[in-house]
């Protein structure tokens, strides 16, 4: 037998024997697993399988990893909000502490000026009272411009202190300074021929009184009845204006005022341009008042309609049947006057009054309300020149 034939014979014999053994004798699965675990490639496969399992778990929105991540993010966000809140509180406290100290110093200074009044000579009292009024108005502006960080209760307290100082000033002025018959007149004493010639060259404006200075006397109109009264901006600019004891009158004030005091008016119409600081209304009955200001204080008045533009909250006290509507006055130089007054045209709290006699925060005050649209005066043009009906 040749070598090739022998080789073929043994290959077929061993192949047949191996096939028979594999067929009739089943392999041990556990043994194969052990063999597989001992392979040098097993560790790499295990790491790959574990990595894929972790990634699948992380991709699942309901997985523990996702929940822990969201929880950590929420906890971090809460901590950041709490930190910011603490910083804001600290800043507010610092602002209030500074404001309180500055307010105390300035109010005590006004108190000291008031205490000096009985000791001063009569001829220096008018200028002294002007200084006090200026300081009080500046202090009031200081309070109003600090309203963005002052609590509402503190805001009321400080404004009340300022009003008390202003009231005390006017009471002392009435007592110590004899007041001439109150009222504004445009007529001047006749000049001599020589005086006229000397003043002709001054009529171009250089000889006018500086309208931005504080006046020695409070001025305006007093004790008038059934009259149409008016003042223009060259007479009004930044002055302390008062309307007192008027009945059945129409008052037109086309200009920028420093403050406006309206006291004891009956059945009157008051039309005003912007007031840079405060409007004080007291003891008025059955009046229509159209005004724009930084601060409104209204006391002891009934049955009044206020067409209002106010940049801070208005305040009413001891009032009844007060109705408010938005400021709707128009005249030629109104926009220019608003720019001169620095009042913010975009901020108007005409429908947000604080009633000091009504402390229930959840129930509207019964002492004031918004004037119904059907009852509002839409055009005031005809009222500049006629008295109320």
Notes on the protein architecture:
This protein has 389 residues and is of the alpha/beta class. It has 2 domains: 66-176, Methane Monooxygenase Hydroxylase, Chain G, domain 1; 218-385, Pectate Lyase C-like (3 Solenoid). The chain has helices at 3-24, 29-37, 42-59, 64-115, 125-145, 152-176, 193-199, 233-236, 334-341, and strands at residues 219-225, 228-232, 240-247, 250-254, 259-266, 269-274, 278-282, 288-293, 295-299, 302-310, 314-317, 320-326, 353-355, 368-370. The protein has a 7-stranded parallel β-sheet, covered by helices on one side. It has a 7-stranded parallel β-sheet with strand order 2-4-6-8-10-12-14. α4 (64-115) runs parallel beside α6 (152-176) and α5 runs antiparallel to α6 (152-176). The longest helix is centred in the first third of the chain and has 52 residues, at 64-115. It is found in: Cytoplasm.
Short description:
The chain has about 400 residues and is an alpha/beta fold.
Model regions low in confidence, pLDDT < 50 over at least 5 residues = 181-217
User: Which range best describes the helical content: under 10%, 10-25%, 25-40%, 40-55%, 55-70% or over 70%?
Assistant: 40-55%
Helix-strand pattern, N to C? HHHHHHHEEHEEEEEEEEEEHEE
Distance between the termini: 149 Å
Strand order of the largest sheet: 1-3-5-7-9-11-13
CATH topology of the largest domain: Pectate Lyase C-like
Structural class: alpha/beta
Helix run count: 9
Biggest sheet overview: 7 strands, parallel
Give the overall form. Answer: elongated
> What gyration radius follows from the Cα positions, in whole Å?
43 Å
Number of domains: 2
Mean pLDDT: 77
Gross CATH architecture of the largest domain: 3 Solenoid
CATH class of the largest domain: Mainly Beta
Organism: Vanessa tameamea
GO molecular function, one term: tubulin binding
Pfam families: TBCC, TBCC_N
Keywords: Acetylation, Chaperone, Cytoplasm, Membrane, Transmembrane, Transmembrane helix
